[in-house]
Amino acid sequence: MTEYEDKLSPVRLRLELVSDYLSNEEKVMLKRYGESSTGESIIRDIIVPSDITLHALHYAIQKLFGWQNSHLRQFYLPDDVYHQLTKNTVKGWSDLVGVLFQPPSEGEHDLFWDDDYESGSFAVWLRKRYTGPYAFKGYFEQYDAARQDIEEMLDRFKELEIRESFSDYMERMETEEDAKPKILRTASLIDMTLDEMNASIALETGTESLLEKLRVNDVLAYEGESTNEPGFPLSSELYYEYDFGDSWKIRITKKEFYDDLLLDYSVTAEELKAFSDMVIAKHKPVCLAADGTSVMDDVGGLSGFASFLKAIHEGEDKEEAAHYRRWAKGMGWNQKKDVPKKLL
User: Fold this and answer.
1) Of 344, 273, 281, nearest in space to 56 by CA
2) How far is 8 from 243, CA to CA, in rounded Å?
């Protein structure tokens, strides 16, 4: 793709809403009624400005998949990348707080600075947040504030009991009826492994959440691009989790080419050029292709959404099916498949 003035360029992302726990019947429902070509995922292919932040991408994701921004979320790296970066130690993680990772208080208090929707068009409100220029103002994501926050946490736990992991405790419970959690040793928090810390104290959203001020283009490498060197980009894939109860999970990848979309007629070469120009001119993402309908909040994740589709289309209780449809409409759900370019 062509580079544009002021160094902005269009970047293609693929967003795959996936689940590790779909039954065969649920896959059939997603394919039959959810318009998923495979029955295993719901996909959006988009082009974004090269300077878009994770924070802005969050709002675009909300619009693309039909959510209402009513639950917590996080962006995180694959386990192997995360462990390589942190060396699975508290020191390794804490050194990167304010550089890559959110400080402890960010997740604990949900301090997202611009989640201020009150009334009016929700779609318009979202659009303003995924349209550039992108200037992040979250207090705890500023380097000095993040460093102060993590240092206060480390100072608070100069000596801490290290407990055995919950899985080890449960395994002992199978043979020791009166087993109690073991205290293995005491240590300063900074000298622990991440596993030891997580077994000893509870951080509400863990340690994996990335700073949302980071630019997607810096975090993500193209598929197949090496990420072994230190520094950016970090990984060839990135994950977004929304609603820690329903646990919606999106796998995000960055693609260098568009051949697949051109070959399956999702988009023409002329449209692709026009959309790429639009991304730069309007400083906002554009959706190129959509595989699968929108979902909704509070339905129980992708598995629950498949069960919902079965209930409204194949359920024997017509009154119950009508009730589900009314509830879904109240959640902003519309089964009608939108033209991709109108999704954002």
Assistant:
1) 344
2) 32
Residue with tokens 């065969």: 24
Length of the chain in terms of residues written: 344
- The residue among 239, 234, 242 whose CA lies nearest residue 217 is 234
Token pair 């050029």 is at which residue?
A: 273
Domain around 62: 10-157+201-342
Q: Is the pLDDT of residue 279 over 90?
A: yes
Residue 291 falls inside a structural domain: yes
Burial grade of 327 (CB within 10 A; 0-12, 13-18, 19 or more): middle
Question: 154 exposed, middle or buried (CB, 10 Å; 0-12, 13-18, 19+)?
Answer: middle
Domain contains 182: no
Nearest to 47 by CA among 271, 333, 239: 271
Note the pLDDT tens digit of each residue in 247-258. Answer: 999 999 999 999
Nearest to 297 by CA among 337, 331, 327, 326: 331
CA nearest to 315, candidates 305, 324, 328: 324
What is the total count of domains within the chain? 1
> Roughly how many angstroms between the first and final C-alpha of the chain, as a whole number?
21
Rounded CA-CA distance 322/226 in Å is 51
Q: Identify whether 314 is part of a domain.
A: yes
Q: What is the value of pTM for the model shown?
A: 0.92
Helix, strand, coil shares of the chain, percent, nearest 5, are 40, 15, 40
The angle subtended at Cα 72 by Cα 19 and Cα 220, nearest 5°, is: 65
The answer for residues whose C-beta is within 8 angstroms of residue 45's C-beta and 6 or more apart is 12, 13, 14, 15, 261, 266, 287, 288, 289, 290, 340
pLDDT digits (tens, 9 = 90+) for 7-47: 899 999 999 999 998 999 999 999 999 999 999 999 999 99
**Residue 115, CA distances (Å) to 118, 133, 259 in order:** 9, 17, 37
Classify residue 195: in a domain, yes or no: no
